Amino acid sequence: MNPTAQAGPAAPFDPNLLRDKSLLARATNWLLNHQMPVWSVLRVLHPNTRLRDTVFVTRREEIETILDDSDGFRVRFGERIASLHANRTVPFGLGTDGPEYFSALKDVSGAMVLEDIPRIGGMVREFVEPRVANARELDVARLARLAQADCGRRYMGLAVSDDLLPDLALWFLAVGNYAFGPQKPDSDAQRAGSAAVAQLEPLIRASIDRALAAPCQDEDTVIGRLITAGMDPQTINITVLGMFTGMMSASTMAIANTAQVLLGWPAAMTVTQEAARNGDDEQLRLCLLEALRFKPIFPAALRDCAAPRVIAAGTRCEVRAQPGDLVCAVTQSAMFDGRRVVAPKAFNPGRSPADTLVFGYGRHWCAGFAIGRAQLVETLKPLLKRGFYQSRPQRKAITYFGAFPEYLPVTLR
Questions:
Q1: Could you tell me the pTM of the whole model?
Q2: Which end of the chain is more exposed for a tag (fewer CB within 10 A), N or C?
Q3: Please, what's the largest Cα pairwise distance for the chain?
Q4: Is residue 113 packed enough to be buried (19+ CB in 10 Å), middle (13-18) or exposed (0-12)?
Q5: DSSP sequence for 218-231
Q6: How far out from the chain centre does Cα 363 lie?
Q7: At 339, phi and psi to the nearest 5?
Q8: Which domains does the chain have, with CATH numbers?
Q9: What's the average model confidence in pLDDT over 347-363?
Q10: In this structure, are residues 357 and 87 in contact, taking their beta carbons and an 8 Å threshold?
C-alpha cells in the first residue's frame, strides 16, 4: 500500500489536554506505578470498597462474578466510543453486552484471522529493527506507539501518509484513554477523545471509499474483508475505529508496561533476554506475558452498574452496587490473590494461563489477543537482544500521556 490520504478539516486536537499536572492526575500516576501494595492491603482488610459512586472489588471470585454478570454490570467501551462521534447512535457491538455482541464478534473474527499473525509480526519487525539497530538511546513509549500505529494502518487498510503517523498514534491513544478510562464526560480526556475522533473519521471514510473503488487493492485488509462480508460503510467506520483503538491502546500500554517491569527487575530481565538472544520465541512470549501480569494493560475492568447488585452478599465484605455506580473489578489484584494463584509474587513464565487476566475474562476475552501478543514480542525482541537499561536521570524523566507513558527513555548496550 502506498499511503497518501491526509486528514481533512476538523476540530483541533490538543495533546496538552492529556498532560494533566493536577494533584488528582499525579495521584493516579502514582497509583499506576505502586498499585500492587494498595490492592494487597485492600484485598485483605477491605476487599470491596466504596469511594463515593465508585466501588473497588479486589478478590478473584467477586471479580469473576462481576465480569460474568452482563445484565448487572455493563461494558462501557462501545457507548464511550459512540459518544465521541457526531452521530451518537452508531453502535460498536464488541464494546457492548447486548444481542449485537456475538454478531459483531463473528464479523471481527472473520476480518482478523489467526493466519494473519506472521504477517503482523513481520510488519512490526520491519518498523522496529532498523530503529533499534544503531540507536544508543531510545524512547520506548514513542517506539511502541509508532510501531503499533504503522502496523495498524497497514493491517486495517487506512490510507495514511508517513508524516501523519505520529499524529495518528496520539489520536488513537486519546480515544483509548477516554474509552477505557474512568474519566467522566465533559473532562479534558473526553474533549481530547472527541477532537481525535473528528480527525480520524475523515481518514477512515476516505480509506473505505478507496477500498470500495478498488476492492482488489485492499482485499487482504480488515476494511477490505468487512466490505466483502457486506458490512455497510457507516458500520465499518465505527467498527474500524473501535478495533484500531483497542489494538493501539492495549499493545502500546503492554509494551511500555512490560519494559518498565523488566527494567526494575534484573532477574526477570536476565531470563527474558536469554530467551530473546537464544531465538526461543515461545519462551520469550511466556516471559513477556508473565512480566505484564505485574503491570497489566489496564489494572481494572471498568463496568457501569445497570441493575442493583449485592457483591459478596452475607459476608463481612458485602457492598451494594446501584445503577449509576462505576464498578472497578481490579483484575490486577485478582491475578495476585494467593487463595487462587500459586506463588503470585514469583516471576514464573511457566505458570498456568488461568492465573492471568491480562487479556480479559469470559465472554469479553480480548478478540485481538493473539495480535497483541505478536506485537509485544516483535517490538521488544530487538531491544532485549541488544540489552537496555535506565540511568537515574532517565527514570526521573518519564512522562505520561493520559494513562499511557508518553516518554520512556532507555539506553541500549
A1: 0.91
A2: C
A3: 63
A4: exposed
A5: GTTSHHHHHHHTT-
A6: 17
A7: -75, -15
A8: 15-33+77-295+369-412 (1.10.630.10)
A9: 89
A10: no
Residue with cell 519487525: 125
Answer yes or no: are the C-beta atoms of 366 and 135 closer than 8 Å.
no
Q: What angle do CA 181, 186, 192 make, to 5 degrees?
A: 65
The conformation of residue 184, written as its DSSP 8-state character, comes to P
pLDDT digits (tens, 9 = 90+) for 98-124: 778 888 888 888 888 889 999 999 999
Question: Three cell numbers at 75?
Answer: 461494558
**Pair 165, 152: CB distance under 8 Å:** no
- DSSP states of 341-354: SSSTTS--TTS-GG
Q: Provide the 3-class DSSP secondary structure of residue 73.
A: strand
Please name the residue that has the C-alpha cell 471509499.
Answer: 209
Who contacts 328 (Cβ-Cβ below 8 Å, separation ≥6)? 54, 55, 56, 57, 182, 300, 301, 302
What digits encode the pLDDT tens for the residues 379-412? 999 999 999 999 999 999 998 888 888 999 999 9
- CA distances 264 to 156, 173, 286, 390, Å, are 35, 25, 18, 9
Distances (CA, A) of 317 to 37, 58, 70, 295, 407: 19, 11, 22, 26, 40
Within 10 A of 13 (CB to CB), how many other CB atoms are there? 21
Query: What residue spans of 134-187 are helical by DSSP H?
Result: 140-156, 165-179
- Cα–Cα distance measured from residue 349 to residue 293, given in angstroms and rounded to the nearest whole number: 10
11 vs 139 pLDDT, higher one: 139
Q: What is the pLDDT of residues 140-192, one digit of tens each?
A: 999 999 999 999 999 999 999 999 999 999 999 999 999 988 888 888 889 99
C-alpha cell read off for 32: 499506576
Least confident of 6-15, 125-134, 299-308: 6-15
Q: How many CA atoms lie within 13 A of 279 on its CB side?
A: 0
Mean pLDDT over the full length of the chain: 89
